[in-house]
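Hi Q.,

Before the meeting this afternoon, I wanted you to have the fe (ii) ion prediction in hand. No need to reply - just skim if you have a minute. The sequence and ligand are here:
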Amino acid sequence: MTDARMTLRAMPFVFEPTDGHWNAARPEFSQVVNSASLAMPYLEPYLIRTMRAAKGQITDPALQAELDLYIKQEAAHYKQHRLFNETLRATGYTCIDGLEGRLNADYTKLEKERSLRFNLAYAEGFEAMALVIGQMLIEDRVHLFGNSNAAVSSLVLWHFVEEIEHKSVAYDVLHHLHPGYLLRITGLIYATGHIFWRTRQGYHTLLKEDGLSRSIASHWALTKVIYRVLFNILPKWLRILKPGYHPRQIADPAWALAWATLFRDNPAGAAKLDTAQLAGPVPVAA
Ligand SMILES: [Fe+2]
Ligand SMILES: [Fe+2]
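Predicted structure with the ligand bound:
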């Protein structure tokens, strides 16, 4: 069974126009996140369509109900990312249409040319990675989000709190319909490689448009943040390779549980975290 906390939340984000550098001290990390955000309105609808296609084959009513909630959470995610992405487009980035076109083509092709079995393995590969990334973002929240734009930081942290909540659904669906280590690992490696490759293309393109790709200081800052993230992620990612892996074995961060309480008591505050006070065990609203 998946976490009983899994629920649909209407997030009242207010995205102000930014120059893309919503973390003024970390423009390179801002563009890494922006690049990933551009993928969401293509990746998450693909996950939803994949899960919907599998739903009829699921014989466990509890798993079907979890899948419905999963779909609702993912739909809420990409809609909010699309709103944020529009603020990036309004900033004047001319590369966004091209980046989005590539993502759209990738997922259209995957859906058309690959089996449902493969797409379910991709979905679980992505979800396993999203769980790892969510843990990393929450552990390193002060460094990555400290004193940055409240709405954008809150968007990313909300998204990954919910990724942690629905961590088991794609695994359980894949295991229910197509159990097998090799398929699961194929999906993990394919999804990880694909997402990292497209995200890397995206942030390099955005940083080039910023004029930062010619700066040695910016290159160094980008290298440092990428290695910081990868060093945190790698041991967590490697444990997914264990034959007996199940996402339920991974403990939820206390901060993610406290975030859900903050949202319950103060939804507007959860959409506008105080990024000067991210260090505490409990999220604080601005
Ligand atoms: Fe999501
Ligand atoms: Fe997800």
